[in-house]
Amino acid sequence: MTAAAPSLGGSLPGHRSTYSAVAIVLHWLIAALILANVGLAWYFTNLPKLEQFGPAGLHKSIGITVLLLTLVRIGWRFTARPPPLPDTLRPWERWAAKATHVLFYVIMLGMPLSGWAMTSASPLIRLHPTVLYGVLQWPALPFGHLDRDTLDGLRKLFGRTHSLLAWVAYFTIAIHVLAALKHQVIDRDDVMGRMLPLLRRK
User: Fold this and answer.
1) Residue 189: predicted pLDDT
2) What span, in angstroms and rounded, lies between the C-alpha atoms of 172 and 198?
């Protein structure tokens, strides 16, 4: 997901005023998958232990999908320059937009990586390997040579990291949505039009 930053009233020569179609599709697809995974996590963690395996497997599959799509998005960003920030932004707004953007990348990479690491350090990984969408087995990280106490410590560390990043995600998503609504409803500019071209006013 990208930080909410207004589009240019008049784009500079050679610069887009909206994100590319590929960036827009990746943005909304990753956003939908993250929100689905948040809801799924809240759902299955409240189930009895034996009933968690199915939903947890789907949760892992979606997480790995987010990781792979994020890598595609990073690669695409190097080939397609995003719209520049407008000159009308105050310094603190520029800082907030860039900080939010960085946070989203930390979340999109850090959450699936920490979840993958936590699963790989679990003593159950051999009995219950990660199988993406019930079709493709996803490899565990090479922790098998470590002793049980070390693995247990790593699993707890990765679990705490995963949980912390989840709370960072809740906060960042809320700020992102509120900022986008502010620009659309109060400022009445073309911020949302950068990712939703149909909403562009100019």
Assistant:
1) 73
2) 25
Please tell me whether residue 102 adopts helix, strand or coil conformation: helix
Distance CA 156, CA 115 (A): 11
Neighbouring-strand partners of residue 132: 136
User: Which residue from 168, 170, 18 is spatially nearest to 178, judged by alpha carbons?
Assistant: 170
Q: How confident is the model at residue 118 (pLDDT cuts 50, 70, 90)?
A: very high
Average pLDDT for 149-171? 96
Position with higher pLDDT, 23 vs 179: 23
Name the burial class of residue 101, with classes exposed (0-12), middle (13-18) and buried (19+) by CB atoms within 10 angstroms of its CB: middle
Tell me, what DSSP letter sits at residue 14?
T
For residues 199 and 137, what is the distance between their CA atoms, to the nearest angstrom? 41
- Domain coordinates of the chain in residue numbers? 21-199
Q: Is 142 in a helix, a strand, or coil?
A: coil
**Cα 129 to Cα 119: distance, rounded to the nearest angstrom:** 9
Contact 15, 81 (CB under 8 A): yes
